[in-house]
Known about the structure:
It contains 8 helices and 10 strands. The chain has helices at residues 30-39, 55-64, 80-94, 113-123, 143-160, 176-181, 193-204, 228-243; strands at residues 6-7, 17-23, 43-48, 69-73, 98-101, 126-130, 137-139, 172-175, 209-213, 215-217. The chain has an 8-stranded mixed beta sheet, with helices on both faces. A two-stranded parallel sheet has the order 7-10. Helix 2 links the parallel strand 3 (43-48) and strand 4. The longest helix has 18 residues, at 143-160. It is globular.
Amino acid sequence: MRPNARLTERRAAPGEVLVVLPTFNEKENLERVVTGVRHLGHDVLVVDDSSPDGTGEIADGIAAGDDRVRVLHRERKLGIGSAYEDAFRVGLAEGSALFVEMDADGSHRAQDLDSIVDAARGCGGLAIGSRYMRGGSVEGWPAHRLLLSHGANVYCRTLLGLRVRDCTSGFRCYTRDLLSGISLDEVVSQGYSFQIEMVHRTVRLGYPVVEVPIHFEDRVAGASKVSQGEIRRALWTVLRLSMSR
Length: 245
């Protein structure tokens, strides 16, 4: 665990599925999202990067009333990729079998969660909640954002030789075997390109990748964390990965 990070104590044996929710200023959304996940019976690990809006304190309050919710507090904003890496290390050390990435802003629906988990369990590799396959959809995005997302996926598929329709989706599930095979210390992406790099590494290791259709809903409250600089860094990361093929 990183220096100065603080993980709330475990009060229950780990379950099969660990759902990781990275947060930064998600006070309007967090409780609703956690409630949806816990209704399905899965463990939750909130990774909060010292949100100035008090999200970390809200997460602590939820955890105090539910033995299967824990919080990893980090001292500053370190990026979504590193949040998942830190959470995966916790789950691997404690014995979780399936590891879910899920947004805490409400754009990923709890009713789509178990189909993704079941697909990962069945294939033994990575299951991705896909917006861009038959049965998938996006609600609430303007045309330019949809075009950007579609373009980013075409770029990834072309440069990395991937057949995955939604390489950038942040709603997905990894098996323990897959994460143990990926050397997290060697992952170079710390921002949103983390999603792309993890698909790339999964394919290079020979693990299956399956896609499950999801309905993506734009966040109800709060602001998107994806900046223009983040997008540029992601495109550059994909180019670097393509040169190492």
